[in-house]
Amino acid sequence: MKCKKIVSGLLASAIITTSVFTGDFMTANAATVGESMPTPVATYTFDGTLSSKEGATAKAYAKKYGAYSGDITYVAGRNAAITSDTDDKAVQLGSYGLELAEKNIGTEYTVSCWVKPDGTIANNMPVIALGYHTPELWTAISGDGGTNACKVWANDKVNNKFAWKTLGNMTIPSGEWSMVTLSQTAGTLSMYLNGNLVGTAAAPDIMNGENAAIDLGVNNWDDLFTGQMDDVSVYNRSLTATQVRYLYDGKDEETVFKEEGFTVTDELTMFQKEKRTITVTLPSAVAAENATISYQSKNEDVATVDNGTVTGVGVGETTITTSVKVGATTLTKDTTVTVESSDNLKEGIAAEYDLTQIVDGKLKDVSGRGNDAAVEGESGISFVEEDGKTVMKMASNDSYIKLPLSIMDSLTDKEQFTIETTFAKSSACGNNAWLFCLGSKVKNSGTNYMFLSPNFESKTLRAGIKDSGTEKLFGTSIQPAVDTYYTVDMVFNKGTVKLYWNGQLIKGDDGTELKSGYSIMDDVVTPGTENGILGYIGKSCWAPDKNYQGKVASFKIYDKAMTDEEIQLSDPKYQEALEKNLEDLTVADILSSNASASEVKYNLNLPATLNEINVTWTSDKPEVISEKGIVKNGAEDTTVTLTATITSGALTADKDFTFTVKALDKSELTATIEKAQALVSNPYVAADTVSAVQTAIADADKAATQSDVDKAVKKINKAMNKAEYVDAYVNPFEYINSSSYSQTATVAAGGTARVFTLPDSIKDTVTVSYASANPDIAAIDANGVVTGLKDGYASVVTTVTAKYDGFKMEYQTVVTVGTPTGKVITPEPQVINVTAAVKDATIVKGQTTQVTVTAPAGATVTYRAKGAVAVTSTGTITGKKGGTGTVYATVIVNGKKAVRKVTVNVGDISGKGTVKVKKSLKLSVKGISGKVKWSVNKKKLATISSKGVLKAKKKGKVTVTAKVGNYTMKKTITIKK
Fold first, then answer.
1. Is residue 920 a part of any domain in this protein?
2. C-alpha distances in angstroms, 678 versus 284, 674, 675, 697?
3. pLDDT attached to residue 34
């Protein structure tokens, strides 16, 4: 395979003498731009074969695509149809992607490529990917939702920045050639489509490090791009907008200016003494420093102009002519300026609507600035009288108000304003309905906007602002009541948003502010509005959302970012509302688990917020009750006063609460410790139990509050309740066998014989007593020694009592003394024949197996389990977790007891149940040994290695399966963004 490169000397000539196409054949005009174009470090025309030695390699990152083999596919190039040049080729991608030979090209770079998608570009499908994936440090052009509206996004795991952040958007149509260009310098990325700048953004430094590559149509995770690519140019410097445009069609600044011209503000409506600015927009290929701009007023008695700033002088209409000169070319545009009398102007208000009537399909702007708002769905809007005032009622999902874009021209500073409205939602208000918004482009996937919703998820208040990628919110818990009026003030001040609810500040991401960092013009109005509409009253920018239904009593936009004092001190009801929050806070809300304010033993529940307002607590005895409500019981009862203070901007209120803290009571703890010390002194308590109880006793010494004391009592009791004992203590009868006692004995009159010997291993775990049923024939002493008294038969019984649970067992010995006559006594059988077995000694988590116990008829059987299993009263064992479990079967028959145990191994997959996208998770099998075969059900979401390492690719849930021999284990893993 072979790669054709154009060297620098030839490239300059090629730019001057050959054609760069947009669809029509034309000769490029080199002019000064062509002479100043830098030399690329590499170009790829694909007009032949391609080999790794000559520039690029076929590469498939993800194993699911398989290793590429065979020849790269070539098709007719982008100029072939126009020039009939059969040698003009492009590369066809789809089953592979290309990695260019150039790497680590520096902090400044430009990569430009012609692209022709075969169809819709799938979500996250890579067009161009720059950087490296381990660790992730990249910028890419990728599909966004499968609409050919591609996103330019980035990730910087090295510096923990730009985590999948969308930097901009561009639409690359299917079936036609488009030139896409990324150019970066000093941390700023510029994005171009067909030579025109579509946006700039801060971006990570991705091409100035090891393995920083340029990949076409492929990345390390997603489906391969399907389409054609041609004429790739790579520069180790950032091209200017003029140079990128020249690379696209060979046109210099003056040529572009002649053809595309410029735009200015068409109309300005203003009042006397007001100032407004004419906005001039040049083509992106024309640098501002290369353009000379001048202004001229036709009638300075009406309006004057100074460097684009227009000042209203007298009532009337005039024209401001803007002249722009680029090179030798000068073009002009006119702005119609209307100056109105300031006599009827409401100072400081950009728009205020008459909500008593609709006139000619509009709500009248009574501020005097002429920003009338068009009404949509007029039949669903009516006007009703309430308390002597007329308000607007919106009662249809098809009704809303269109706020005009001209409102922004009525603002002295477009980045400083306040929206104020009074409203009452109805029970028919739509789910997630917005009361108002700035931003008018309605889409299924959202757009750029600032909004307020009184009905988020049909109940709560929510507000926020969004640029092209990230929504920043006031996510409140406030639930506006139906048919109840509220006043909202939303203040925008150079990127910072404040929200007031009935005069009270709502918490944002930084105290009482939401510091978005967004420009209302650059991040909302310019990209998010259309058709001269600034936004809406009663409508959302999200197409699926229902419209607002309810009443609106007032709506106005102030020409400034109002202060706390201006909003909150404007109405005494706001102070009353703040105080009402404290009135509603009672002692009962604070007591927590305490009986009353006069009997405080435990920590108090001091709320940190009340209705979204921060609460500050102070204590006159912080050493007894702290400002966080921590109670420290002393040697005597103590009275403490707590003061709750709430502050909302310029408003403040406080309230006192008095409590009596009771002296510390350790009586229950002392008694519990005595029991615990008795337990640990038992020599038959297991070592783990002794350690746990002793630790709990030691921790109890630190108890300084009543809460600590109660916790210490619970901890000690919990440790004692879990006490484990050695088998000789729990099941001492297992150690008594036929060698321990005699079922029969023969002695002469006056002779002796030992009939019972207690094993040393249980001598301290039981008590033993002896009795003779025929004491006149044979007597037995306290050591189990029988003495024959006269000829005959005697039944001697040894009673063994377990200290553990008081259970008793009787052992009978039939003693023959001398040569008796009469009926022979037959001894009762003493040993219980009991066995226990488990059907399956190995199971997996969630599976069951069964204990089978064989015992004499009439026996009762009970079960208990420990470790990795649980057991039912019928002996069904269930695996709870990976590991080993033990089940004990206790059998009692005819007053006799036997305990048998079985062991079960439980297999399970161990490891976390969650992992983030593009992260790895190590899984292993516990409880079962052997070779593990791993698999995952959704390979588009994740893959798993033979060693159990799961690599997450996309958000979702997957099921991991591990097989060990005949055992199959499954585990659900949640992959998060």
1. yes
2. 87, 6, 5, 12
3. 63
Q: For the packed helices 667-680 and 706-721, what is the interaxial angle rounded to 10 degrees?
A: 30
| Mean pLDDT to the nearest integer, 40-46 | 90
Same domain? For 918 and 894 the reply is no
Say what the pLDDT of residue 8 is.
Answer: 26
pLDDT tens per residue, range 694-733? 999 999 988 888 989 999 999 999 988 888 888 888 888 8
Choose the final residue of a domain: 725, 753, 768: 725
Residue type, 474: F
* Contact criterion met (CB below 8 Å) for 896 and 811: no
Domain co-membership, 204 together with 316: no
Q: Does residue 641 register a pLDDT over 50?
A: yes
- Kindly state whether residues 785 and 770 are assigned to the same domain: yes
**181/197 same-domain check:** yes
Specify the CATH number for the domain of residue 298: 2.60.40.1080
Relative to beta strand 389-394, strand 97-103 is: unpaired
Q: How confident is the model at residue 778 (pLDDT cuts 50, 70, 90)?
A: very high
823: in domain? no
**783 lies in which domain range?**
729-817
Residue 712, class by beta-carbon neighbours within 10 Å (0-12 exposed, 13-18 middle, 19+ buried)? buried
How many Cβ atoms are within 10 Å of 604's Cβ, its own excluded?
25
- Report the residue count for the chain: 977
Q: Kindly state the DSSP code that residue 208 receives in the 8-state scheme.
A: S
Work out the burial of residue 220: count CB atoms within 10 Å of its CB; fewer than 13 is exposed, 13-18 middle, 19 or more buried.
middle
| DSSP E strand boundaries for 683-807 | 744-747, 752-754, 766-772, 778-780, 785-788, 792-802
Listed in sequence order, the residues at least 6 apart from 721 whose beta carbon sits closer than 8 Å to its beta carbon are none
Shared-domain flag, residues 775 and 735: yes
CA atoms in the 13 A half-sphere facing the CB of 494: 2
- What is the spatial distance between Cα 221 and Cα 155, in angstroms, rounded to a whole number? 14
Q: Are residues 696 and 733 in the same domain?
A: no
CA distances in angstroms from 847 to 570, 843, 929, 931, 965, listed in the order given: 69, 6, 17, 21, 16
Give yes or no: residues 366 and 493 share one domain.
yes
Q: How confident is the model at residue 446 (pLDDT cuts 50, 70, 90)?
A: low
- Structural domain tally of the chain? 8
d(CA 46, CA 88): 8
163 and 294 co-located in one domain: no
Give the whole-angstrom CA distance, residue 359 versus residue 511: 43
Per-residue pLDDT tens for 375-414?
999 999 999 999 899 999 999 999 999 999 999 988 989 9
In a domain, 857, yes or no: yes
pLDDT score of 549 more than 60: yes
**Cα(232)–Cα(214) distance, integer angstroms:** 11
Rounded to whole angstroms, how far apart are CA atoms 854 and 714?
40
Q: Which pLDDT value is given to residue 831?
A: 55
pTM, to two decimals: 0.53
pLDDT tens digits, 500-516: 999 999 887 777 889 99
Check: CB of residue 498 under 8 Å from CB of residue 481.
Answer: no
CATH number of the CATH domain containing 539: 2.60.120.200
Of the residues 342, 371, 399, which one is the last residue of a structural domain?
342
Q: What is the chain's Cα-based Rg?
A: 43
Residues whose CB falls within 8 Å of the CB of residue 353, separated by 6 or more in sequence, listed in order:
363, 364, 365, 366, 373, 401, 555, 556
User: Does residue 1 fall inside a structural domain?
Assistant: no
Lowest mean pLDDT among 177-191, 478-492, 676-690: 676-690
Dihedral of alpha carbons 742, 743, 747, 750, sign: positive
Q: Which of 460, 669, 455, 623 is nearest to 549 (CA)?
A: 455
